[in-house]
Every structure is written in structure tokens, then in C-alpha cells.
């Protein structure tokens, strides 16, 4: 059995990481998607592998190849991603939900390409809610011992007149019930598809060890990823 050592603090641990962005098909050629590149999730997977963890990597439409040394599963839609995460999470020590999961999907899939009509009109697209993968897993683990005790969520937030990025993050952390929430500030010039990132890690108040101050990290996506790996190693080895 491998043991946690200084340079491999996650040896012997299994961690599930999701990355990328889901696509929700409308017809055979069109989908509703988002701008996630999967770079931050891939960087987290790499940092966890470097720290000695066994990484089950669930990827949705990455803009670059998956990192080396992970066990790769691919998923396209939110429903597929949920099935893959459920499977991978069994017996895992940790889960990092870095994927951008579509909140809604088209209510109906058109088996053939949607065509324009001669009257100049446009179709309305009806949407239905997707499952909340993270919240569902947090709820499910209340009566299952084989699901990860350490769940890390991500939130891409923009501040507005009523609340700051961190205030929105706090509310989301409470709502989701995960142990850690990594809050990114996004906008036209930061976040998606970029190599640089700034994030605030928020910790659940009733986590083991008591309340903990937020941690701020700025730098490359690899810097943010290493911080997340450090925090996870600390939590799993305490
Ligand atoms: N998430 C998820 N399943 C969903 C939507 C989100 O598991 N259907 C996860 C994301 O992977 C992320 C976290 O939940 O780790 C927060 O995602 P975010 O979109 O910021 O939160 P939402 O609860 O969807 O809230 P919002 O209305 O702000 O989009
Ligand atoms: Ca969302």
C-alpha cells in the first residue's frame, strides 16, 4: 500500500475530477453549450496526479487533450456526465466538480435538422431543468458511506449592484452543501479559455476542524490547481 509522503500527500487516494462543458443537443447538428475550455479542471487533475492521487477524470468537450496519467471517461450532456460521475464517485475519497454543467436542456430533441419556414418566423425553444449533479451527490451521501467525504464545487460568478462575487459564492456554498467552493470571477476578459485565473476558496463553516478563513489565489490555472490539491491533501490527511 502506498503511503502519503511529503511530495505525494495524496498517494493511495482516489479523486474524481470533472472538466469541460456539457452540450445539450437540439437536433443532429446543433446544441446549447457554454464557453468552458476544461483548462482549469485539467490543471486540477494534473496537480492531483502529481500529488500521488489516482484520478478518475470525467471530461466533457475539452478544448485540449486530457492530461496524462488519469483514468478518462468522456461525457457529452449533463445527464451523461451525471451517470459517469455517479459511477466514478463510488469508493472515491474526493470529487472536484470543475465542469460547467448546463442548467437546462431542450425539452425535445429534433431527430432531423430544424428547418426555416417561409413565413419568416422563428421557433421557440422550450427548456427543462437538468439534474444538479453536485447537489444530488451531496444529498445522496447522507445515507451512503461509499461516496466522497470531500466534495469541491466551482462557481463562476460576476458581481452586480446587490452582491459581490464572494457574497454570491457564500450563498452558493450554503445551498450546495459541499465542503469547499472555488469561486472564480468571470467576465469578458477573465476566466473561460484563459490561462490566468484568480480564485477564492470558501470553506463550509461546519466542516471538520471548524470555521476557516477564505483563501485567495491568483496566478496561472496551474497555481490555482496546486492550491486546490494542497487544500484537499490537508483535508484528507487531517
Ligand atoms: N453543477 C452541477 N450540476 C448542475 C449545475 C452545476 O453539478 N446542473 C455544479 C458545477 O459543476 C459547479 C457547481 O455546481 O461545481 C456550481 O455551478 P454553478 O453553475 O455556479 O451553480 P448553479 O447552482 O447552477 O447556480 P447558477 O444559477 O448561478 O448557475
Ligand atoms: Ca449553473
UniProtKB/TrEMBL annotation:
Domain (DNA/pantothenate metabolism flavoprotein C-terminal): residue spans on this chain: 10-232
Catalytic activity as recorded in UniProt: (R)-4'-phosphopantothenate + L-cysteine + CTP = N-[(R)-4-phosphopantothenoyl]-L-cysteine + CMP + diphosphate + H(+); N-[(R)-4-phosphopantothenoyl]-L-cysteine + H(+) = (R)-4'-phosphopantetheine + CO2
UniProt-listed Enzyme Commission number(s): 4.1.1.36, 6.3.2.5
Co-factor requirement: Mg(2+); FMN
Origin superkingdom: Bacteria
Pathway: Cofactor biosynthesis; coenzyme A biosynthesis; CoA from (R)-pantothenate: step 3/5; Cofactor biosynthesis; coenzyme A biosynthesis; CoA from (R)-pantothenate: step 2/5
Name recorded for this polypeptide: Coenzyme A biosynthesis bifunctional protein CoaBC
Organism lineage string: Bacteria, Bacillati, Actinomycetota, Actinomycetes, Micrococcales
Range within the parent protein: 182 to 419 of 419
